[in-house]
């Protein structure tokens, strides 16, 4: 994460560097992005960049952490309004998030992020994120304090976290499919992918198998 030198910069210079990072990462994956492009857009020297960040991954994770903090704040507020109902909150957040990701001001950044998903790359990024995030001793999200677990068939915090990850996976999968297929299958609209996303959330909450399936067989 950024050094204190970065936070000591004037706000306009910090924002210029953040904007430069968002621009570069909106057109190139983390692996393909070049520090030279970031410093050129930010109008700083390469040496100055390394006074603020350890490397381009450090900047990338900082940008993600800012988005994550905003997402957590919205999640907490939404869960309070739904009195801890995880699935009701997940539906609202997923639809709002889907619209923001595909049409908001950072849509190109998210397109590059979600279309770059693959098992090996995502696992490596998750490992790096966890290591760097824990190194800062930041507290993890207190899901058990926000979610009414009595509504759910979960036995502990770990199972609740697994369920949250499954819900985010449904969101991410449909966003990635939209970005991947939008250019080649224009007839598949955003509404169709959002409908599919909500259907998958319904399946997770209520199950897929018909209740009378065994009786029919």
Topology readout:
Layout (H helix, E strand, L loop, with lengths): L3 H4 L3 H15 L9 H8 L3 H7 L3 H26 L4 H18 L3 H9 L3 H17 L7 H4 L10 H26 L7 H17 L6 H4 L1
Helix pairs in contact: 2-3, 5-6, 6-7, 6-10, 6-11, 10-11
Mean pLDDT: 86
How many angstroms does the end-to-end distance come to? 58 Å
Give the beta-strand count: 0
Overall radius of gyration:
20 Å
Instruction: Give a short account of the largest sheet.
Output: none
Order of helices and strands: HHHHHHHHHHHH
The structure class reads: mainly alpha
Low-confidence stretches: none
Strand content: under 5%
Describe the global form.
globular
Number of helical runs? 12
* Residues in helix, %: over 70%
Give structural notes.
The protein is globular, with a radius of gyration of 20 Å. It has helices spanning 4-7, 11-25, 35-42, 46-52, 56-81, 86-103, 107-115, 119-135, 143-146, 157-182, 190-206, 213-216. It has twelve helices and no strands. It is 71% helix and 0% strand. It is mainly α and 217 residues long. The mean pLDDT is 86. Helix 6 runs antiparallel to helix 11 (190-206).
In short:
This protein has 217 residues and is mainly α. The chain has helices at 4-7, 11-25, 35-42, 46-52, 56-81, 86-103, 107-115, 119-135, 143-146, 157-182, 190-206, 213-216.
Describe this protein with a few key phrases.
mainly alpha, 12 helices, 0% strand, 217 residues
């Amino acid at each position: 994460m950024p050094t204190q030198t970065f936070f000591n910069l004037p706000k306009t210079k910090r924002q210029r560097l953040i904007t430069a990072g968002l621009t570069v990462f909106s057109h190139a994956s983390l692996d393909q992005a070049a520090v030279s492009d970031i410093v050129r857009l930010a109008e700083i020297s390469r040496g100055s960049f390394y006074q603020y960040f350890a490397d381009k991954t450090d900047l990338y994770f900082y940008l993600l952490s800012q988005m994550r903090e905003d997402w957590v704040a919205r999640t907490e507020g939404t869960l309070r309004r739904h009195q801890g109902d995880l699935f009701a909150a997940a539906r609202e957040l997923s639809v709002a998030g889907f619209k923001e990701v595909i049409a908001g001001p950072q849509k190109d950044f998210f397109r590059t992020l979600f279309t770059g998903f693959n098992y090996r790359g995502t696992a490596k990024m998750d490992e790096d994120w966890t290591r760097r995030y824990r190194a800062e001793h930041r507290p993890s999200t207190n899901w058990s304090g926000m979610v009414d677990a009595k509504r759910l068939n979960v036995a502990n915090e770990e199972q609740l976290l697994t369920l949250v990850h499954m819900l985010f996976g449904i969101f991410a999968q449909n966003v990635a499919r939209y970005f991947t297929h939008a250019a080649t299958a224009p007839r598949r609209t955003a509404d169709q992918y959002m409908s599919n996303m909500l259907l998958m959330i319904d399946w997770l909450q209520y199950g897929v198998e018909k209740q009378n399936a065994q009786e029919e067989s």
